[in-house]
Please model this.
Amino acid sequence: MSYSIIGTGGIGGYFGGCLARAGKEVHFLLHKDYNFVREHGLQVNSCRGDFHLDGVNAYDNSADMPASDVVIVALKSINNPLLKDLLPPLLKPDTLVLLIENGIGVEAQVQAMFPQALLAAGLAFICTAKTGPGVIHHQDLGKLTIAPYTPGAEQRTAEVIRDFTEAGVKAVTAEYLEARWKKQVWNMPFNGMTVALNTSTDALMANPSTAALIRAQMLEVIAAARALGVKNIDENFADLMLEMTAGMKPYAPSMKLDHDFGRPMEIGAIYTEALRQAREAGCPMPRLEMLEAQLRFIEGR
Amino acid sequence: MSYSIIGTGGIGGYFGGCLARAGKEVHFLLHKDYNFVREHGLQVNSCRGDFHLDGVNAYDNSADMPASDVVIVALKSINNPLLKDLLPPLLKPDTLVLLIENGIGVEAQVQAMFPQALLAAGLAFICTAKTGPGVIHHQDLGKLTIAPYTPGAEQRTAEVIRDFTEAGVKAVTAEYLEARWKKQVWNMPFNGMTVALNTSTDALMANPSTAALIRAQMLEVIAAARALGVKNIDENFADLMLEMTAGMKPYAPSMKLDHDFGRPMEIGAIYTEALRQAREAGCPMPRLEMLEAQLRFIEGR
Model:
């Protein structure tokens, strides 16, 4: 199967890089780093072993790319409107579009643009970031959950999981709504709280007041997820996420990096739409509504 | 009636200064500013007209002060344990101790130290701060609510209100619990939020997200107050406080100043005890619990 990567940052560069290293056909769409990667290749500095890719299939325009069996979209959700132009050249009738993005509602948004496309959600439990032109730093973890969204996407999803497994990535499948909301259990507390308090995950875990607050926020997400029909989730999942975080190296989530580097934050996908759905389901999340308001204030400053 | 002021800062200096200007006998306990005020007097720069007091009755030790009819305690609540030594020389059997402090539970704390003392709560709706040695800056507002706490404190409270009125201060009485919790409706949102977001009241009011959040936090306090038995309070009081704040000049509440100048914040009196009582009454305040956790994190940094 052939792959195209839209958005060669921490996520797209790492997962695409793993597939390419394993000999899969991978085409990378780049923007600022196009010339550098075309000339010097892609460097992945990973806690599981560094590797370098030469002769990368690099593009600065999706119109020049071949249609692929799988398109991995690893943009900031805020840039999804760009897909209207970026995606069409890459689509075959049975292409799977895998959205490895944060937040709630991103598949619905893209499906509305491309009603015929087969979509799947990708949930990356990984600490990774682009740290320089063509340089990806993979700091910790690395599991990828892939959940079919469009009816009929199941078989292609299974094939993608097989490819990732061959490429050394721990990839599993899951039910769509469950997968998206489980990711939110980590994303909603930690992304915003590291921005609001200008800190990193380890400091939030080390202070008993914020550690208890993070847990309370996680329980708000879990209650909302259950109200929205996610069955396989309960309080234990909060403790699992807290244990995982306690075992992680100090980490600045993507929203913290976005804020620090003056990029827009993904408040809409990570907070606004999730909060709206929770309210509509009769299960509002007051602490996370407060966090959203603080982020909107910080964004407007 | 004779007055002693314990804590000659923004509050004690302003209200004590108004009484002295009106010819009342007022004794001021000072700490760092003692020598300066003894020599140069007290300067009050007020939006209602500046004034200067010469020949101030200044002391650096309460043991040197005469027993008074009224003792105004205008310390940070965090320093109340000092009252064990500061108060006894000032007390006559019928002395009224007026605690113009922030928070919930301060009268109970002081009454436990002095079971025989007549206590009243003072709630100052005023923007005032000490801006230099012996210099008080009165920026805005100025109403003082005095609520008898100890049974039997009613008559002396009425006399104090008469004196303040003669001194040009708008002073009124109110029921104790109602008065304390109405002050909390403003204090709990604005003190912590200006610290958490490093901002001032006007910026929080100007952003629609934080303006809505502040209102939601006010409604949490109002619901808790009602659960604790305060009858004369409802949603309208939140709107009244928001209107008042919208009409104020940009203001940094006392907790913001404390934080900016590296002094301890009054988290215990303004948050912890109020949150505990609200939980006990079956009416927790999730947004304000979150704010307390953020403040504890900031305090620990």
Chain B has two domains: 2-174, 178-300. Chain B touches chain A through 25 residues (CB under 8 Å). Residues 205 and 246 of chain B are 7 Å apart (CA to CA). Chain B has twelve helices and ten strands.
